[in-house]
Automatic annotation (TrEMBL):
Biased composition (Low complexity): 603-618
Keyword GTP-binding part of the UniProt annotation: no
Gene3D superfamilies in the cross-refs: Nucleotide-binding domain of ferredoxin-NADP reductase (FNR) module
Domain of life of the native organism: Eukaryota
Residue ranges of every copy of the Ferric oxidoreductase domain listed in the record: 279-395
Transmembrane regions: 172-193, 240-258, 270-295, 349-373, 380-398
Positions of the Ferric reductase NAD binding domain: 533-676
Subcellular locations according to the entry: Membrane
Record organism: Wickerhamiella sorbophila
One GO MF term: ferric-chelate reductase activity
Pfam families according to UniProt: FAD_binding_8, Ferric_reduct, NAD_binding_6
Record carries keyword Calcium: no
The protein, known as: Ferric reductase transmembrane component 3
Length: 696
């Protein structure tokens, strides 16, 4: 399925290249040829004001086509004599443009292809009659005099190049993304297939340098990271910045206006050409926008980048695409406005209105997708975002269908989005409706045991999206880290203010336990090779323990912990939090994992006031759980650990390769990564840092 999805994506994007016309000679040849009596007489209902009306007739008339092709060959030779390069490529491109118009606008599917027209031209008896004789005798094919073509050739080069460059530049933006993703995939695969080789490369002088300053270091301080929602290392930021520079440099260069061509003035030509380029380039971003936002983005698995990185790419590509279409709109308006009365006429056309609406929708989506609005009301953001996306696709379709060239990117976008949704349905259906036994744990945590007869194939660290059946929330799906059990899956869910709070209240109202029907969709998330290190230090903040728990518990079960020294630092507000996990974490202690519990406060205050939902069963369950807590399991430390001091100690004392895994609030993840990267030169050992974030 995934392979099929990517095939559709690649196929349609590659297919579009052939559809982006770059004409150098065809339009110039068309005028003298269709006004010659030999052709005009053949073309029924020919309207001299409307060249388009003759396409249908001449496209499938071999003699006219040979005449046109001969004119293009002559023009190509003349262009070389005038000092312009790439005559052969331009000749082929011009012919393909003509064929494209013939097939598309006038339903002439049998127009000869380039090889066929070349063969037909070679086979035609020569010399052809000249233009003036043909005008009298109506003979075909004929030659077009050089002096008729001469003034048209130079201006047409600028125009053709502008269109040709647009196709090339659009492709380069695409290759750029492919290269970024490809390099990440190669390195990620190496860490699995040749962990020692990957370790040596990463620990080389260059490898350390790159990791110190790019692939491990946070972009900037925690506050700015929160503000910009850029919770990642510098690599995606640099890559996205590189894309930005490339996109807008390429959008601005190589417009060569030469007087005497189709456009009356430089402003008119640049307006149209820039308008065209800034309209095509965002279309090449479109499939990625949908692909990177999808849950079934198999690149997550290939690159090892988590959803947040792709989400970042999604957001920034969307912003660039919006800027592109604003430029597109402005540039075309300038170009069109140079022709008296044309702008008013365009505003009366449906395709123009549809384009304007699509642009406005994009602007709205950029604002509506801001991190603040997402944090305030995630579900509202999600569903309105989908609504706007559908609206955007509809209006873009009506706009693009008018010019037709970038339709393939539209098909690719539909395909990518459609397949993501289809795969989600298949994943849900394959697991079916399951029973979830929900028990209230300590400090706002619920333990959810899902009995899954066709279990999702959970792997360490994966997450699943869960739909809790019930009229108030069945349409919502929330991500939770999944832990494999004998009967299915276990989730630990901390309640916040939305759906999780409602479920908790239902359980509390039901005496601390409730059974619900759920649908599970997954598993998702990049696998991490934590086994590869001699020593592993896990740092969890609050409910972030679930990701680490998922990794370690499955390894303990499968007996693959041997030889690895593991320390778990868990930072919690109060000791009660621990009690829900006590039984499970005892297994960790038994397996030799050192657990250090950092208790930062004494209150059990959660993310929201519990007064309205607290009940005696809550207190009872806490008490019960607390009974199981054994101080033998962990070392207790009061207060927040100083991450910037703690992390380097491990690094300096490491006797072998050392991995850090962190999952907690963004600021904790940020600090761990910052500490590891800034101390990387303090040890000769190979050190790596992995993180899991719960913020979307
Ligand atoms: C990969 C991943 C794994 C996670 N694993 C766990 C886990 O094991 N245990 C756990 O308790 N929590 C986990 N979370 C967090 C959990 O998904 C959210 O806390 C939960 O969705 C909040 O639901 P709510 O309606 O009560 O949130 P609200 O009170 O409405 O919002 C609280 C926060 O959760 C975010 N949020 C709300 N809905 C969603 C959603 N559908 N998807 C993503 N974020 C959302 C909001 O932006 C906000 O920041 C995980 C998140 C991610 C991304």
């Amino acid at each position: 399925m995934k392979l099929f999805c990517v095939t559709v994506l690649v196929y349609t994007l590659v297919g579009v290249q052939a559809l982006l016309p770059a004409d150098y000679f065809y339009s110039s040849c068309l005028t003298p040829i269709i006004t010659n009596n030999a052709v005009a007489d053949l073309v029924k209902e020919y309207d001299p004001e409307d060249y388009m009306s003759v396409y249908g007739t001449y496209c499938e008339n071999q003699d006219i086509m040979v005449t046109l092709f001969d004119c293009m060959i002559t023009s190509a030779e003349m262009s070389t004599e005038m000092g312009f390069s790439h005559a052969h490529r331009k000749l082929k491109s011009s012919y393909d443009t003509m064929r494209y118009y013939c097939k598309l606008y006038y339903g002439a599917p049998h127009t000869l292809n380039y090889q066929e027209i070349t063969a037909a031209w070679n086979a035609a008896p020569k010399p052809f009659v000249n233009y003036y004789t043909a005008n009298e005798t109506l003979q075909l094919p004929f030659t077009v005099p050089k002096d008729v073509m001469a003034p048209l050739i130079a201006p047409a080069q600028g125009e053709g190049d502008s269109y040709y460059d647009t196709a090339q530049y659009s492709y380069w933006t695409l290759y750029y993304v492919v290269i970024c993703v490809g390099l990440a995939t190669i390195f990620n695969l190496l860490t699995w297939l040749m962990p020692k080789g990957a370790e040596l490369t990463a620990n080389s002088f260059l490898g350390r340098f790159v990791r110190r300053y790019i692939t491990m270091a946070p972009l900037w301080n925690d506050r700015l990271a929160r503000w910009t929602h850029f919770h990642s290392n510098r690599l995606p930021a640099f890559e996205i910045f590189g894309y930005f520079v490339m996109n807008y440099v390429m959008m601005s260069v190589n417009y060569r206006y030469i007087e005497g061509g189709e456009y009356a003035s430089r402003a008119q030509a640049i307006g149209y050409w820039l308008g065209y380029r800034s309209g095509i380039m965002p279309m090449f971003k479109l499939p990625f926008l949908f692909f990177f936002a999808g849950r079934n983005n198999f690149l997550i698995w290939m690159t090892g980048w988590d959803y947040n990185v792709f989400s970042m790419w999604h957001r920034w590509l969307a912003r660039f695409a919006t800027l592109d279409v604003l430029i597109h709109w402005a540039a075309y308006s300038v170009g069109v406005a140079t022709i008296p009365g044309e702008l008013a006429e365009e505003w009366g056309l449906w395709y123009w209105i549809a384009g304007v609406i699509a642009t406005l929708v994009m602007v709205i989506m950029c604002i509506q997708g801001s991190v603040w609005l997402r944090r305030i009301a995630y579900e509202f953001f999600l569903y309105t975002h989908i609504f706007w996306a559908i609206l955007f696709l509809i209006f873009t379709w009506y706009h693009v269908v008018y010019v037709t060239y970038p339709m393939s990117t539209m098909y690719a976008s539909f395909a990518v989005w459609g397949f993501d949704r289809l795969l989600r349905l298949i994943r849900m259906a394959s697991s079916g409706v399951c029973t979830a036994n929900i028990t209230i744990g300590s400090d706002h945590v619920m333990v959810v045991d899902i009995v899954d007869k066709n279990p999702v194939r959970a792997y360490p660290g994966c997450h699943v999206f869960v739909y809790f059946m019930g009229w108030r929330h069945f349409y919502q799906s929330h991500p939770f880290t999944a832990i494999k059990t004998d009967t299915g899956l276990r989730l630990y869910i901390k309640s916040w203010n939305g759906m999780t709070k409602r479920i908790r209240k239902m359980a509390l109202d039901n005496g601390g336990k409730i059974t619900m029907k759920v649908i599970v969709e997954g598993p998702y998330g990049p696998p991490m090779n934590l086994k590869a290190f001699n020593e592993l230090v896990c740092v969890a903040g609050g409910i972030g323990i679930t990701a680490i728990y998922s990794h370690l518990s499955q390894r303990i079960l499968s007996g693959s912990m041997s030889g690895q020294k593991v320390t778990l630092h868990w930072i919690v507000r109060n000791e009660e939090f621990f009690s829900t996990f006590a039984e499970d974490l005892k297994k960790f202690a038994d397996a030799g994992i050192r657990i250090v519990l950092h208790v930062t406060g004494h209150s059990s205050a959660g993310p929201h006031s519990e007064s309205s939902v607290a009940s005696s069963s809550d207190a009872e369950s806490k008490e019960k759980a607390l009974e199981n807590v054994s101080s033998q399991i962990y070392e207790l430390e009061n207060g927040r650990p100083n991450i910037l001091e703690m992390v380097p100690l491990y690094m300096v004392n490491a006797t072998g390769s050392l991995g850090f895994m962190t999952c907690g609030p963004a600021s904790l993840n940020h600090d761990v990564r910052a500490a590891v990267s800034s101390n990387i030169y303090k040890t000769k050992r190979y050190v790596q840092c992995y993180e899991e974030g719960f913020e979307m």
